[in-house]
Amino acid sequence: MIFFWAFVVGGLICVIGQIMFDVFKLTPAHTLSTLVVSGAILDGVGLYEPLIDFAGAGATVPITSFGNSLVHGAMAEAEKHGLVGVLTGMFEVTSSGISSAIVFGMIGALIFKPKG
């Protein structure tokens, strides 16, 4: 059943994003920002972790999880280091994903010929 719920929850997050594109005519930047902020707010009020426990990868793979990671890291480090921890916590938790995107993007740019 975990695969089913991961599919349903991840699909619903994607459907929300698609509705934002098609119905509300939002740009990709607005849609991306809205979904990241939504994940951050859900984590701030304590609702995203139960969603992860329920849906697994259905909640950790979509972009809303990035907002969750930012807030989660900031709150965890704030407990240890105070106000400075808020800033360092966001970077500490998300640095591996961002670094991977940069490295793999560079490798892809070197291997494949861009269209243009």
TrEMBL record:
- Write out the entry's keywords from A to Z: Membrane, Transmembrane, Transmembrane helix
Q: Where are the transmembrane segments?
A: 93-112
Pfam family membership, one: SpoVAC_SpoVAEB
Q: Does the keyword Membrane apply?
A: yes
Q: Which InterPro entries does this one have?
A: Spore_V_AE, SpoVA
Q: What is this protein called?
A: Stage V sporulation protein AE
